[in-house]
Design a protein that fits this description.
The structure holds three protein chains of three kinds.
Chain A (H helix, E strand, L loop, with lengths): L1 E12 L2 E12 L3 E5 L6 H9 L6 E6 L2 E2 L5 H7 L1 E3 L12 H8 L8 H6 L2 H20 L15 H14 L4 E5 L7 H12 L7 E5 L3 H7 L2 E6 L2 E6 L1 H6 L1 H15 L1
Parallel strand pairs in A: 3-8, 3-9, 6-7, 7-8
Antiparallel strand pairs in A: 1-2, 1-4, 4-5, 9-10
Helix pairs in contact in A: 3-5, 3-6, 5-6
Chain B lengths: L15 H33 L6 H19 L3 H24 L7 H23 L13 E4 L2 E4 H23 L1 H11 L1 H6 L4 H23 L9 H16 L4 H21 L2 H18 L12
Chain C lengths: L6 H20 L3 H26 L7 H17 L5 H23 L4 H21 L1 H4 L22 H23 L2 H11 L1 H6 L4 H27 L9 H14 L6 H15 L7 H15 L3 H23 L16 H11 L19
Helix pairs in contact in C: 2-7, 2-8, 2-10, 2-11, 2-12, 3-4, 3-5, 3-10, 3-11, 4-10, 11-12, 11-13, 11-14, 14-15
The chains are: A alpha/beta, B mainly alpha, C mainly alpha.
InterPro entries (chain B): ABC_transp_permease, BCAA_transport_permease
Keywords (chain B): Amino-acid transport, Cell membrane, Membrane, Transmembrane, Transmembrane helix, Transport
Family (chain B): Belongs to the binding-protein-dependent transport system permease family. LivHM subfamily.
């Protein structure tokens, strides 16, 4: 089933087309990757899907519904979560509190429930705690749950960001350079975490630079160049695509060295 | 603060035209005052990224210190304004160093609360020294000029002329002088500017001092028309904020255009509708702008 | 942690009990009773400010205005229109809620500085209306002879003690509500907005809506405090709606601690007490208060409860972090095994004072504490 349908998407800033005529199908249960050099429009694409930016052209639909002009909190409520390139956590809170924040969008109890300590409130609090713990454990950072977000290593922060996103119970997770800043030794572990997401019912759309990671992870790869689609296909196809090789794999290999 | 209709020569009957001309000049004079006050505030926002809620209080202090030098010490009017302006410049620098600088990395609510604290301090000071009652400041500038059939008080002419001169000097200063250029540089790109050796601290101090100086000139010019009181800065404060939000936080041209626009709107509605509406115009504008475009009308891409 | 052992809860309850017992000490001294009761009215308004400023991180400079609306609502309705206190009070509070909601419609879309400036304008407008609209509000003459609450034959509210407990009861509701909000997802939502609106938005928080609700709540608390204030003092003037009042509230919350449960109460009572102590210097009050507020914001923005609570939280966190780590020796820098009874843990952690693990106990506060 096609989870996310992007059709002829475009975003223009002033005179510049950051993204132009991009079409993509993200299939359920799969890991789809978007690659391309810096400035190719990858983060812009994410921002468009997530709702931070409004497209100037094209449409986006998620599970059949048009989300082209949805705002971030509506897309999250609808089942799309995202992480950011620069880790975005609530610095002054513990990891557990951060992930609990992810549960807000799924919490229905309001002030009255809180004040009167209604059964719904108690039930939800318990569910939230459980789900938050589960997300933390799934991402392998449960032991840091009482540490302040600003006090843990970069990799733990990145995993927590994923846990926070998972806490919103998404069906699609947008990962924006999830392995950025993570030492080489850890990327394998991180890759495993990402690979385990579809089994959990979370389809993945990710942006990454690290080619080895992508090749081992992705089911489908979209290559962007100057905001436009250069190639789309399975890793093997992409690797052997002469345009891609010429333009990107060569330079990315250099980046990685 | 409201400029009321100037006294008319008894022998004249106001025609529609003369009334209009009169109010136009009232509006222009008021606009000059608002501009001078607004420019400083918008610059502070552009450079420090802070809404200086104490700006109105600086304006008020400027008026009182001018008053002090004019009446108590007996210095000529222009000189009194000048001395007061310099003193307030120092006060502005002090405010930056003691209040805003320590809070530069704190949440935005903190420096606003601190500004409120400074505002109260200045008001309490003025009240303690000069009392809470209204005071008159008499200007040596008397007489009227006759323009297109209308009698315009000389004071207002002086205000308009002075405002234009000061604005021109300021523009020159910002565009031509090194110091002025640093202000512009920091406004546009704080990080970049510091990379080329511009000291943000110096620029912050300069800007805040300048804003106090300009506000003082405005206050000194208009004080003879209105009365002085420790709370005279309160209404002005909000109006000036309305102006710079209207014109765009950090935008000089916006402050100038906004200042004149609001002043003329105020004066005209006060004359032709009612004085109550005239007073309310600024607030209506403020609320309307925030309701429609919550981040101001012409937001310059002020970098955060 | 067992609530009964939580120092914060114990502390808060202690303060409440102490406060509740003051009539015993001051029963015969009407003036003292009135001062304390007025202080509690202010505390109620400060609890409102706590929600919008302490939890949500938005500076509401109109709180004095809402206090004034509450006061004038009760004042005018009971005098000029001869309503009963209770009817006037209810209508007054509803009125404040409506006005707060309407202002909140704009507030919900404005950010940071714009929000503060907007509320400053609102507060100013309210003050202008109250102080100038002579026919309705009596302008500077004020309102006299505000009615006492009707006791239905059971309670005589003309007695200061009865009045005290009425306000005290409502104050308790405020404290409890704040506590309930704090530990629920509602509180969590507000705190995310305080820390980072953008991130909150990105994880699905309805930022605008939450801000609007918080603002409306703040207005309601302000109105309740104001309405009670009117009946406690019996006469009110435009100063009840002035920026001075807002300033007072800011003072109270800074001293007590923003974003805490006990802070507003503690701050209000302590500062009210200090004001009384230095009564003779009334005229020079603001000369000193201005710099004090600046100093507080620079050096002690978290307030008394904030710092005390922060201390408690750090201790707790050290313990919890170790427990969460389990018996993982790599991360333990105290040199000894981290397993063992909780009692040992705490003693060791507090005693050696060193940082555990990877330098955990930095000065950054968690939302359990304040900003």
């Amino acid at each position: 089933m096609t989870m996310l349908e992007i059709r002829d998407l475009g975003k223009r800033f002033g005179g510049l087309d950051a993204v132009k005529d991009v079409s993509l199908d993200v299939e359920a249960g799969q890991i789809t990757a978007v690659i391309g050099p810096n400035g190719a429009g990858k983060s812009t694409l994410f921002n468009l899907v997530h709702g931070f930016y409004r497209p100037t052209a094209g449409t986006i639909s998620f599970k059949g519904e048009d989300i082209t002009h949805s705002s971030p909190h509506r897309t999250v409520a609808g089942g799309i979560a995202r992480t950011f390139q620069t880790t975005n956590l609530f610095d002054d809170s513990t990891l557990l509190e951060n992930v609990l924040a992810g549960r807000i969008v799924r919490s229905k109890s309001n002030v009255f429930d809180a004040v009167f300590h209604t059964p719904r409130h108690r039930r939800e609090s318990s569910i939230n705690e459980d789900k938050a713990m589960e997300a933390l454990e799934f991402c392998g950072v449960a032991e840091y749950r009482h540490d302040l977000a600003s006090n843990v290593p970069q990799e733990v922060q990145k995993r927590t960001a994923v846990a926070m996103a998972l806490a919103t119970e998404p069906e699609l997770l947008l990962l924006d350079e999830p392995a950025g800043g993570i030492p080489e030794e850890e990327t394998v572990d991180f890759g495993n975490l990402i690979r385990s997401l579809p089994q959990r019912g979370v389809s993945v759309l990710l942006v990454e630079h690290k080619m080895t990671m992508i090749m081992g992870l992705a089911d489908t790869i979209l290559v962007l160049d100057h905001g436009q689609k250069l190639a789309l296909g399975a890793p093997a196809e992409i690797q052997s695509n002469p345009d891609v090789i010429r333009a990107y794999l060569g330079s990315t290999a250099q980046e990685e060295n | 603060m409201r400029l009321t209709r100037a006294a008319l020569m008894p022998a004249e009957d106001p025609t529609i035209m003369t009334l209009f001309i009169q109010q136009l000049f009232n509006g222009l004079a008021l606009g000059g005052v608002y501009c001078l006050a607004a420019i400083g505030l918008t610059l502070v926002f552009g450079v420090l990224r802070i809404p200086n809620l104490a700006h109105g209080a600086l304006y008020m202090l400027g008026a009182y210190i001018t008053y002090f030098f004019l009446t108590t010490v007996g210095v000529p009017y222009i000189a009194a304004i000048g001395i007061a302006a310099i003193m307030l410049f120092i006060v502005g620098v002090g405010l930056e160093r003691l209040v805003f600088h320590p809070l530069r990395n704190s949440p935005h609510t903190h420096h606003m609360i601190a500004a409120v604290g400074a505002m109260f301090f200045f008001q309490a000071l003025a009240q303690a020294i000069w009392g809470a009652d209204f005071r008159r400041m008499d200007t040596p500038i008397t007489g009227e000029l006759r323009i297109l059939g209308a009698e315009i008080s000389a004071q207002r002419i002086v205000i308009i002329v002075t405002a234009v001169i000061v604005l021109a000097l300021l523009a020159l200063f910002i565009k031509r002088s090194i110091h002025g250029q640093t202000i512009e540089a920091i406004e546009q790109d704080r990080v970049g500017a510091s990379l080329v050796g511009i000291n943000p601290s110096m620029v912050s101090m300069l800007t805040l001092g300048l804003s106090a100086l300009l506000a003082t000139i405005a206050a000194g010019l208009v004080a003879p028309i209105n009365l002085l009181s420790p709370t005279m800065g309160d209404a002005l404060n909000l109006k000036v904020f309305a102006i710079i939000i209207l014109g765009g936080l950090g935008s000089l041209p916006g402050a100038i255009v906004g200042g004149f626009a609001l002043a003329i709107a105020e004066t005209m509605t006060a004359t032709y509708i009612s004085s109550a509406v005239g007073e309310a115009v600024a607030f209506i504008v403020l609320v309307a702008v925030l309701a429609i475009k919550p981040n101001g009308l012409f937001t310059k891409a002020v970098q955060r | 942690m067992n609530p009964m052992k939580n120092p914060r809860i114990i502390g808060t309850i202690a303060v409440i009990i102490l406060l509740g017992l003051t009539p015993l000490a001051f029963a015969q001294e009407n003036y003292a009773m009135r001062v304390i009761t007025v202080g509690m009215c202010a505390a109620i308004a400060v609890y409102g400010l706590n929600i919008i400023l302490g939890f949500t991180g938005q500076l509401n400079l109109a709180q004095g205005g809402f206090f004034g609306i509450g006061a004038y609502g009760v004042g005018l309705l009971t005098t000029d229109y001869d309503w009963s206190f209770w009817a006037a009070f209810v209508v007054s509070v509803i009125g404040t809620a409506v006005i707060g909601y309407l202002c909140g419609l704009i507030a919900l879309r404005t950010k940071d500085e714009y929000f503060a400036i907007f509320t400053m304008a609102i507060g100013f407008i309210i003050f202008l209306v109250i102080s100038r609209w002579e026919p309705v509000t009596h302008a500077h003459s004020g309102v006299n002879n505000v009615k006492f609450p009707e006791g239905g034959g059971l309670i005589d509210f003309e007695s200061p003690v009865a009045m005290f407990y009425l306000v005290f009861a409502i104050l308790l509701i405020c404290v409890y509500t704040t506590y309930a909000i704090r530990r629920s997802s509602v509180g969590r939502t507000l705190l995310t907005i305080r820390t980072s609106e953008d991130l909150a938005d990105a994880i699905g928080v309805r930022v605008g809506f939450s801000k609007q609700l918080a603002f409306a709540a703040s207005a309601v608390f302000g109105g309740v405090g104001g309405g009670l204030y009117a009946t406690v003092v019996g006469f009110i003037g435009p100063d009840a709606a002035s920026i001075d009042k807002t300033f007072e509230f800011l003072m109270f919350i800074l001293v007590g601690g923003m974003g805490t449960v006990a802070g507003p109460l503690l701050g209000s009572m302590i500062v009210t007490f200090l004001f009384e102590l230095f009564q003779d210097f009334q005229a020079y009050r603001f000369i000193v208060l201005g710099p004090i507020i600046v100093a507080l914001v620079i050096f002690a923005p978290r307030g008394i409860v904030g710092y005390l609570g922060g201390f408690v939280d750090r201790r707790n966190r050290r313990r919890r972090v170790e427990e969460a780590r389990g018996a993982d020796d790599d991360l333990d820098s105290t040199g000894a095994s981290t397993s063992g009874g909780t009692g040992d843990h705490r003693a060791r952690n507090v005693a050696d004072g060193t940082e555990s693990g990877a330098g955990r106990t930095g000065g950054t506060p968690s939302p359990e504490e304040t900003k």
